[in-house]
Design goal:
This protein is an alpha+beta fold and about 230 residues long. It has helices spanning about 1-5, 50-60, 100-180, 185-200, 215-220; strands spanning about 10-15, 20-30, 30-35, 35-45, 65-80, 85-90. It folds into 2 domains: about 1-125, no CATH class; about 135-225. It has a 3-stranded antiparallel sheet. It has a 3-stranded antiparallel sheet with strand order 4-5-6.
């Protein structure tokens, strides 16, 4: 196996998995696959012992096992520790394991091709998710700025309206006083009100767009519709 792997240009190394230390690993087209040699077991009908029969008679639930297993002398080559998958070759009546190593390499190479397809598909999905995340982040930042500007504008409009209402009130009070001498007017209070209107009114001052808010992760989170602000 090692000689053929070298001939085909595959790296040969060791690895650890499932508690095995320094298992043989072939790196086929960039994808490592551990080789596991096992001896198959023959399954035989278990013949209960007298002790097992007595235990069953005493406790009905204590039934003897159905099968016994014994070494078969047949070797099997697998590409994993899973007994139900990854079988590459094995001893059979018509051939020996070493006669099927060519088929084993065909399966290893097919598995490597499949692993590469899955790897490329995973890369494609990761790239798509990255692009979608970046688009979501850009949209969230835009909405954050728009909401912030809208809040500032709403505050400016509210201050302007309040200033206009105060001035309208002052004008009405003075008009009422001019029309009726009995109307009592506190000019000091009206002067203070005028000053407050001037302080509230944004129009006389330079009205510019506010500074954009800092697009921190937590600031963007409400606009991301479930996306993580820190990673895709």
């Amino acid at each position: 196996m090692i000689d053929e792997a070298d001939r085909r240009g595959y790296d040969v190394t060791t690895g650890k998995s499932y508690g095995c230390s320094d298992g043989l690993v072939l790196v086929v087209r960039g994808h490592p696959q551990e080789l596991v040699f096992v001896e198959e077991q023959n399954r035989l009908t278990h013949e209960p012992t007298n002790a097992e029969l007595e235990a069953q008679a005493r406790w009905e639930w204590n039934r003897p096992r159905k099968w016994d297993y014994e070494p078969s002398g047949r070797l099997q080559l697998r590409s994993s520790h899973d007994a139900y998958s990854g079988t590459l070759a094995g001893d059979r009546q018509r051939w020996k394991l070493e006669d099927r190593l060519g088929h084993a390499f065909m399966k290893l190479e097919a598995a490597a091709d499949l692993a590469e397809q899955r790897h490329q598909e995973a890369l494609r999905r990761a790239e798509e998710r990255q692009r979608a995340w970046e688009a979501a982040m850009a949209t969230a930042q835009y909405r954050l700025i728009e909401d912030h500007r809208g809040q500032v504008l709403d505050e400016q409009v509210q201050r302007w309206r309040e200033a206009q209402d105060i001035r309208t009130l002052i004008t009405q009070v003075r008009a009422a006083a001019a029309a009726d001498p009995d109307v009592e007017v506190d000019e000091a209070w009206l002067a203070w009100a005028e000053g407050r209107a001037d302080r509230l009114d944004p129009v006389p001052y330079r009205i510019v767009a506010p500074e954009d808010p800092e697009p921190t992760g937590e600031a963007l989170r409400p606009y991301l519709r479930g996306w993580d602000p820190y990673r895709p």
